[in-house]
Amino acid sequence: MKYQKVINDKIQCEICPRYCKLALNQRGFCYVRKNSENKIILETFGYNTGLAVDPIEKKPLYHFYPATKALSFGTLGCNMGCMFCQNWETTKVKYPIENCQKVTPDEIIQIAKEYNCKSVAFTYNDPIVFFEYAIETAKLCRQEGIKTVAVTAGYINPEPRKEFFNLMDATNIDLKGFSEKFYNKNCMAHLEPVLDTIKYVFNETNCFVELTTLLIEDENDKYIKEECEWILNNLSDTVPLHLSAFVPRYKFKNRKQTNFNTLLNAYSTAKNTGLKYVYTGNLSTIETSTTYCKNCNKPLIIRDGYNLIENNIENGCCKFCKTKTDGLF
Question: Domain 4-284 sits in which CATH superfamily?
Fold first, then answer.
């Protein structure tokens, strides 16, 4: 089995930077990877928490085949410990796997075809924890000409990262905050492995990258300028950045919801720092949902939330000034 090794009388999982060392029948931090008969198995392989046909914009991906449909699914568990998890009902609650819907990778492909989905999205919980299920499904997608999308926190080790992202056509990576202290305190994780993943995917694969930061007032909203400068210096000014509003959930139920003015301030900071494609999520206006030409600044794709109102891209270029638009259209 890949990405695991014996250490004394335990099996070490090497999928993510937690390196969980598991005794017989013990589960990892993610709860779904288990030492069974001295090898790590994925207990959720072939089980998911439901399939949904979503607009690709909901992932969110605004520069990857806009207005197409994605067949989305997730399973149980997570390798992050976010106190503010927006999907905690499936990532944190430990209920029997048998309660999930059983759907094989082959069946996922057939359903995607039936509903004319351009892509299959591994989402809702982090696909890194259902690595084998995602990998097998992605391989079948490639064979059938269906695009693959990963919505992930990017907390993965270098070797499995290569296999995983080389099978993905697009990803939205959740950059939870640009601070090691924030990651430590609120995610029980570290920032550097996430930054390494983002750099690797952008610079060394063909996987299209967009980023999301869920803004929590007085927690990670103060690091937006540093985050944008890092994006400029390590990636490109054309990487789309989504700034989303936090809704009180899980262990942050008593925190206040992100004010729209906080999002607008972060949006302005990102634009002023030099990023070409910035959006707000959960709370938005037509202005903050619209894609603008990086050259002439005219509106290219006008959106109201996830809904596309007008498309001024022709053959991948701005129809006004003919400048190429970054992304896949």
Answer: Aldolase class I (3.20.20.70)
Q: Distance of CA 59 to CAs 128, 187, 260, Å? A: 16, 21, 20
DSSP secondary-structure letter at 195?
H
* Contacts for 23 with CB less than 8 Å, ≥ 6 apart: 9, 10, 35
For 199, phi then psi, to 5°, come to -65, -45
Which residues 6+ apart lie within 8 Å of 83 measured at CB? Answer: 186, 187, 250, 251, 252
Q: What is the mean pLDDT of the segment spanning 42-52?
A: 94
DSSP alpha helices (H): ranges in 98-211? Answer: 105-114, 131-144, 158-165, 180-187, 192-204
The 10s digit of each residue's pLDDT in 80-133 is: 999 999 999 999 988 788 889 999 999 999 999 999 999 999 999 999 999 999
Dihedral (C-alpha) 147, 129, 77, 154: value to the nearest 10 degrees?
-80
Tokens of 214: 């869920």
Tokens matching residue 286:
């037509």
How far are the Cα atoms of 90, 115, 124 from residue 52, in angstroms, in the given order? 15, 10, 10
Sort strands 51-55 and 69-73 into parallel, antiparallel or unpaired: antiparallel
For residues 178 and 212, what is the distance between their CA atoms, to the nearest angstrom? 12
- pLDDT category of residue 69 using cuts at 50, 70 and 90: very high
At 50, is the pLDDT very low, low, confident or very high (cuts 50, 70, 90)? confident
Any idea of the CA torsion for 269, 270, 274, 279, to the nearest 10 degrees?
A: -140
Q: Mean pLDDT across the stretch 300-317? A: 95
Contact yes or no for 245/280 (Cβ under 8 A): yes
Question: At 35, is the pLDDT very low, low, confident or very high (cuts 50, 70, 90)?
Answer: very high
Angle between helices 131-144 and 158-165 (to 10 degrees): 30
Name the residue ranges covered by the structural domains of the chain: 4-284
Phi, psi of 166 (to 5 degrees): -75, -10
Tokens (6 digits) for 143? 């064979």
